[in-house]
Hints:
Largest sheet: 7 strands, parallel
CATH topology of the largest domain: Rossmann fold
CATH architecture of the largest domain: 3-Layer(aba) Sandwich
Structural class: alpha/beta
CATH superfamily of the largest domain: Glycogen Phosphorylase B
Strand content: 15-25%
Distance between the termini: 11 Å
Number of domains: 2
Order of helices and strands: EHEHEHEEHHEHEEHEHEHEHEHEHHH
CATH class of the largest domain: Alpha Beta
Shape: elongated
Amino acid sequence: xxxxxxxxxxxxxxxxxxxxxxKRLVENMAMLPxxxxxxxxxxxxxxxQSTATERIKNQxxxxxxxxxxxxxxxxxxxxxxxxxxxxxxPDAFFVPAHVLPIISHxxxxxxxxxxxxxxxxxxxxxxxxxxxxRFTTKYALKHAEKIIxxxxxxxxxxxxxxxxxxxxxxxxxxxGMEYKLLDLKFSEAPLNFPYxxxxxxxxxxxxxxxxxxxxxxxxxxxxxxxxxxLAGGLGFGGEKIKEMAAKHRFKNxxxxxGFISExxxxxxxxxxxxxxxxxxxEGFGFPILEAQAFGVPVITSCISSMPEVSGEGAILVNxxxxxxxxxxxxxxxxxxSLRKNLIVKGRENLKIFSWQNCARETLRIITD
Length: 368
């Protein structure tokens, strides 16, 4: 079977969650013994070429994986890729990020939908972007033969907002998590003070305001030298978050790092005492698994996909109640056995999330 994969995201040099997913999926699918039975075509745009593209051209992937560069400056999926499919379609087609070509696509198409945050938090998206996401998601749900989602929670969200979708065409496939904690070498020294950590975009739906309120309650009640490190770029509501942090009565103990590199992220995880992730919505929640991989106790939300992803390796709180977040912080600080148990359970939880399993199950769905 000839399998086409929309690979623009996989080759972007700066990767967020979707791009990391696409790259890991391609890499791990290439290592599957059953993948040798098929021929893979990785469609990408030269404008998004990166070192990852060069590695593939230098045959880091098996001989049955081919790179197809289709040059076009804009609307690449809907114009250039669609035009290519008019004349030459693969037997099956996989899209790792919800946008299916409208004019022409293979009948046997499988689409990954990571979340539908634009439906739950429409105010966080500009009008045109929201309408685009809604249209392309609906189109994929209607016209793709199969849909993959990263959590049961996301599946239920889709069925709630789009009641006409056939549940049988939606498959849950967990993302993977890879981590290596041995021989980590950093160019920067770790922070030399105790701190709680949040990593991710600074935006309303991540509940950064709730974290700031919980930190205020904690510092007022519990005499501690802990600081709060908020690491990530600004998203919707980011300016208000910065303003609240600047006016916070414990503002000298709050650090906003801005966007951070992978190395800096690992550096922050290694020395953090607690990872705070009481988000209001997640399609999956990679940072939870990253914290568990680095042996950091996790406090996360009791809603959306977070209980599903964190397993028993986290304290679950109501994200709308800063008091609960504060109480969870204090529990971890004063109860060493609880802290150790969360770390152990977190490491055990990671065994569920394997990129090899993700790639294998995705390939099975594509080829069925």
